[in-house]
């Protein structure tokens, strides 16, 4: 079966924008309910486990659809800005069941921005963008909910988790009805429990569906060493951040980047997004690594602040060599593009022009440094929490 891309017309753009118009209201509700927030922040993936300089070396022998498109020039190397985060992250306790997210931002030699955005599960949280907006709404409603004492998660089963997330479940039920909310909650629990049973954020991440070289596919970011295990007894609220800091202080944190090409709707579904793709046919596309760094150093803190203050967007992509396709190739992707922009507008994200030179030079200039320090100092003074404090 041939894959057919979504090509939105003006009406598609309008109706999809209306579908995600609730983003600013969710942003404000989360701010009002979450004690850790003192200013508007991301609607999702707000809490940063790690962020900073990231490197990408493209494979010499590339999958056919990728060759010559955007970043994918055989053997090319790029400096970018990477970020690892929790998905919902309210409140900020790293032992809670949650998604983990990865963002890798780069720029082509022609100045085109590319963002790889992934989560640590091969399937999407919902089948469509309207249901995902219901999940975002429920997250905002439950932002101030009380969660269990840290260290007890190993004893939890699905129904214990549902009971503790009653506010989230009630809000989801009000939007979806009992049957659909129950199915969605069970799927989300299955996906997010992985983080609660993890000792490290150094694990596999999958992007959403991307169009490149005339076909659809997903990317996998796979650790070169599988070192994840169950966390120890009472690992601590910031155990993933601390583990990453120790790991990056000891050496490069390396991943292989794989491409999974679309086969057919049975093995690689594009409509039932909550079904995982078969990935036995994956092909190597390159290597990504966070360079060895003391994350408490002033330079690393500056890069981490940049990773936090900048935005990212699924629309930052090159689909073909001509670069004449401007929109994501799925309606879910279009909705994410519009929602991300609303979230960034609502939190005053750093304008892309302010850091565009970083991709070319690998350095943060004086003017950008001053702006980043000003933003970080203001949030620290206000008591805003969006990561583990440096030195902790």
Question: How would you characterize the overall build of this protein?
Answer:
An 8-stranded antiparallel β-barrel has the order 1-2-3-4-5-7-8-9. The chain has helices spanning 10-19, 23-33, 129-141, 158-164, 166-176, 178-196, 239-250, 298-309, 331-347, 356-361, 366-382, and strands spanning 48-58, 77-86, 100-107, 113-119, 205-207, 210-212, 215-223, 253-261, 283-290. Mean pLDDT is 91; it is low at 146-164. The termini are far apart. It contains 11 helices and 9 strands. The protein has one domain (10-382): Catalase core domain (Catalase HpII,  Chain A, domain 1). With 392 residues, the chain is an alpha+beta fold.
Task: Characterize this entry briefly.
The chain is an alpha+beta fold and 392 residues long. The chain has one domain: Catalase HpII,  Chain A, domain 1, CATH 2.40.180.
Q: Give the CATH architecture.
A: Beta Barrel
Oligomer: single chain
Helical content (DSSP H or I, runs of 4+):
25-40%
Strand content: 15-25%
Strand order of the largest sheet: 1-2-3-4-5-7-8-9
Give the helices and strands, then pairings.
Layout: H1 10-19, H2 23-33, E1 48-58, E2 77-86, E3 100-107, E4 113-119, H3 129-141, H4 158-164, H5 166-176, H6 178-196, E5 205-207, E6 210-212, E7 215-223, H7 239-250, E8 253-261, E9 283-290, H8 298-309, H9 331-347, H10 356-361, H11 366-382
Antiparallel strand pairs: 1-2, 1-9, 2-3, 3-4, 4-5, 5-7, 6-7, 7-8, 8-9
């Amino acid at each position: 079966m041939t894959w057919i891309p979504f090509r939105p017309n003006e009406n598609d753009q309008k109706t999809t924008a209306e579908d995600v118009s609730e983003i600013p209201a969710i942003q404000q509700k989360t701010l009002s309910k979450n004690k850790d927030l003192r200013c508007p922040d991301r609607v999702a993936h707000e809490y940063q486990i790690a962020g900073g300089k990231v490197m990408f070396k493209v494979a010499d022998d590339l999958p056919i659809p990728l060759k010559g498109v955007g970043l994918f020039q055989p053997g090319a190397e790029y400096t970018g800005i990477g970020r690892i985060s929790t998905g919902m992250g309210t409140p900020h306790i790293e032992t809670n069941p949650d998604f983990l997210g990865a963002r890798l931002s780069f720029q082509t030699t022609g100045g085109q921005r590319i963002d790889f955005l992934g989560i640590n599960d091969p399937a999407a949280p919902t089948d469509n963008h309207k249901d995902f907006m219901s999940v975002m709404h429920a997250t905002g409603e439950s932002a101030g909910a009380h969660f269990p004492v840290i260290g007890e998660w190993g004893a939890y089963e699905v129904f214990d988790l549902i009971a503790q997330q009653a506010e989230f479940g009630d809000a989801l039920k009000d939007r979806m009805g009992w049957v659909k909310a129950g199915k969605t909650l069970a799927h989300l629990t299955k996906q997010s429990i992985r983080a609660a049973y993890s000792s490290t954020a150094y694990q596999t991440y999958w992007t959403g569906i991307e169009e490149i070289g005339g076909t659809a596919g997903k990317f996998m970011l796979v650790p070169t060493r599988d070192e994840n295990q169950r966390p120890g007894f009472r690992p601590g609220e910031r155990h993933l951040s601390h583990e990453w800091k120790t790991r990056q202080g000891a050496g490069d944190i390396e991943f292989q980047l794989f491409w999974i090409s679309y086969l057919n709707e049975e093995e690689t579904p594009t409509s039932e997004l909550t079904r995982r793709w078969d990935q036995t046919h994956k092909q190597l596309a390159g290597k990504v690594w966070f360079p060895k760094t003391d994350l408490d150093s002033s330079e690393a803190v500056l890069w981490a602040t940049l990773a936090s203050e900048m935005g990212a967007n699924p629309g930052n992509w090159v689909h073909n060599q001509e670069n004449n396709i401007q929109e994501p190739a799925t309606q879910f992707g279009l909705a994410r593009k519009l929602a991300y922009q609303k979230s960034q507008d609502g939190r005053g994200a750093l304008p892309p022009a302010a850091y565009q030179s970083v991709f070319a030079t690998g350095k943060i200039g004086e003017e950008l440094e001053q702006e980043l320090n000003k933003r970080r100092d203001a949030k620290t003074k206000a008591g805003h929490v969006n990561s583990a404090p440096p030195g902790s």
